[in-house]
Design a protein that fits this description.
Elements (H helix, E strand, L loop, with lengths): L1 H20 L3 E3 L2 H25 L1 H6 L4 H16 L3 E3 L2 H25 L7
Antiparallel strand pairs: 1-2
């Protein structure tokens, strides 16, 4: 449970960081970032596998590059749904989703080291 809460707070902080360094994304508060992190997580858990399956031919034809479009569409959809997250354009959603994915990977690696089970000697 602690791992899940830590990941959620870190992903919300990543959204705030992205909004700070990239002018195409605006987040009104940390609370809005927390809600956006939940919505993005739900979209990635529920909708992303379905979209990947439905667009498999396009993904294969573009050698996987269409997955960036799917990620951007989910990010843009979350911004459309939420009041506290604003994205200026689909291109901004594409850039922000790439940054958010990179931040998520860094957070996963860091949490893997932080929450590693103790090793027996």
């Amino acid at each position: 449970m602690l791992r899940l809460l830590t990941r959620w707070f870190c992903l919300a902080a990543a959204l705030l960081f992205i909004a700070h360094v990239y002018p195409g994304v605006t987040i009104t508060s940390f609370g809005s970032a927390l809600v956006a992190a939940i919505v993005l997580g739900a979209f990635n858990t529920v909708l992303r596998p379905l979209l990947v399956l439905l667009t498999l031919p396009a993904t294969v034809l573009t050698l996987g590059l269409f997955l960036f479009v799917i990620n951007a569409a989910l990010f843009y959809s979350a911004a459309w749904l939420l009041d506290g997250l604003k994205v200026s354009s689909f291109g901004a959603a594409l850039v922000a989703s790439i940054f958010y994915s990179l931040c998520g990977m860094v957070i996963e690696v860091a949490m893997g080291h932080l929450f590693r089970p103790p090793q027996a000697h």
